[in-house]
Amino acid sequence: MDQKGLGMSPVSAKQPILSARNLVKRYGRVVAMDNCDFDLYPGEILAVIGDNGAGKSTMIKALTGAVRSDSGTIHLEGKPVFFDHPNAAREAGIETVYQQLALSPALSIADNMFLGREIRRRGFAGKYLRMLDKPAMRQTAREKLSDLGLLTIQNIDQAVETLSGGQRQGVAVARAAAFGSKVLLLDEPTAALGVKESRKVLDLIQEVRSRGLPIVLISHNMPHVFEIADRIHIHRLGKRLCVIDPKTATMNDAVALMTGAKAPEQMAV
User: Fold this and answer.
1) CATH number reported for the structural domain that contains residue 62 in this entry
2) In total, how many domains does the chain have?
3) Residue 108's beta-bridge partner residues?
4) Bridge partners of 244?
5) Range of the domain at 240
6) Rounded CA gap, 214 and 88, in Å?
7) How far apart are CA 48 and CA 235, in angstroms?
């Protein structure tokens, strides 16, 4: 099958906002990343798919500072960057929502939104007594949730443990969208959700993208991937096999490429 038939995504004329070249990561004899490449373009939803053990998680962790690659380069907005820990990536504008969500169930929605980024009061009380500006955090949290259409959450002070799975996912995405100024990465955001709650999360992802924030979506749910992704990065054996266009490729093509049943005629970069 030719490149067009496989639905290969054409090379974009735009400069990637986040890119990586020749990333390598070894754990003893296990090669988790084997000269891995990656490109995320402004304003797009890029889905990353691959079989279990393909190296997707290691690549995402390398891009966000959770793992240090043995070699290779990462560029953000065309400039070389090196993240030695996740906070460095966050400070650069890259936010990640992991499958575990990293929320504190006993704390309120507002407290979770600002966990690790608390706003202090002005003046002596904030600078020396380190007192928090609770009203400001509540107001900002409510504004961010409302902006993303999460109006079903009435009480910003209610504990996260009282929320449904979809609402918790919404809080995690809203927090990342509020502070992620350049890139948002989502790891299996609908994996543990039902049909109705998954629908709300997908709508939320599209709402975030409509505000101009590019998104990386790691998912095993093919219908979700083909519904909302602009391009699909297929990861196999520790590297990017190819990138396909969901408008012209099929789910069967994606699965065949992902599992090795079909080989792309030409690598798409």
Assistant:
1) 3.40.50.300
2) 1
3) 159
4) 8, 232
5) 1-43+54-93+222-269
6) 19
7) 7
